[in-house]
Amino acid sequence: AIEVGLVPTTNALELAVRVDNLEAKLDVHYRAACIGGSTSMSVRTRARLTSELRVSAGSGRIRTAFPSPDVTLEDFQVQLAGMPGVVESMLKRVTRPAVEIALAQLISSKLPPLVDAQLSALLTRPPLPQVLGREVEVVVTPSWLELAPAGIAMVADVKLAVRGGAAGRYATTRSIVPVPAGDAAVWVSASSVNQLFAGLWAAKAFDRT
Description:
The protein has two helices and eight strands, in the order βββββαβββα. The protein has helices at 85-124, 190-202; strands at 2-9, 12-32, 35-58, 61-65, 70-80, 130-131, 134-148, 151-162. The strands form two sheets. Strands 1, 2, 3, 4 and 5 form a five-stranded antiparallel beta sheet that branches. Strands 6-7-8 form a three-stranded antiparallel beta sheet. The chain is elongated, with a radius of gyration of 26 Å. The N and C termini lie far apart (57 Å).
């Protein structure tokens, strides 16, 4: 089971993750004095991760970062086979902190690109809705993002391209960036509405026979 908690703070999200029944199998190669060899090791544990999740927007992309993740392993169990007792005792002492450090480094380096890619795919390839029987391609390009304890605000350039309505022309108006609010809300500029209706008009979506 995996539990995830996100709490907005100033310029970041407080992330808390709990993973139960985390299991891993490792190959161990050891050498101490004149004793050496290799064996397999099974690790079973419960992991807790706490970190700041920093999110920013610019150049048409959303970027995330986990600057200092903290990983704590609970109920840590290690099983080793065919190893001298003194070596087994030493490995059990160093395995837990080594696994915690390795997981923290993995999260810090590997997770942000995966999250960025998923957010990018979500924004740039949304489904094609239909308005008055015409497909509308929605392209969202983030330009600004702000996190605060009261909520999250994001400004994005939105392109609403109606299939068959490329010839549509519309007037643009100056947009005012809204402030973050505690409640979930969507703010749409008048230019986006003008763009949509111009495309629908050019695609003859309002014609009725």
